[in-house]
């Protein structure tokens, strides 16, 4: 899976203060450029806070409408395990 490295990378990192802005902007570019990205999902882990667990992990957001991470009421703030994951067009089409 091509995004495994990305997953590991993101989970090992503390989020930069502009994590949401940077990541969503990058995915937005990916949607425009070759159009291979359909949107973003919020991926949580078992260690994620309850605020993150409450997010529907199957919901696909446009980068402009995705919940801002870290979530406002997240107790872990920058070290929270919730991340944005790109949703590829082929994933959506499989449904
Ligand atoms: Zn959180």
Structure described in brief:
With about 100 residues, the chain is α+β, with helices and mostly antiparallel strands. The chain has one domain (about 5-10, about 20-95). It has four helices and two strands, in the order ααβαβα.
Low-pLDDT runs: none
Helix proportion of residues, in percent? Answer: 25-40%
Distance between the termini: 18 Å
Which ligands occur here? zinc ion
SS class: alpha+beta
Give the overall silhouette: globular
Number of domains: 1
The overall pLDDT, averaged over residues, is: 85
Order of helices and strands: HHEHEH
Beta percentage is 5-15%
Number of helices, counting only DSSP H or I runs of 4 residues or more: 4
Which sheet architecture does the biggest sheet show? 2 strands, antiparallel
Return Rg in Å.
13 Å
Query: How many strands?
Result: 2
Strand order of the largest sheet: 1-2
Secondary structure layout plus pairing:
Layout: H1 4-12, H2 19-32, E1 37-43, H3 50-53, E2 83-88, H4 89-94
Antiparallel strand pairs: 1-2
The structure holds zinc ion.
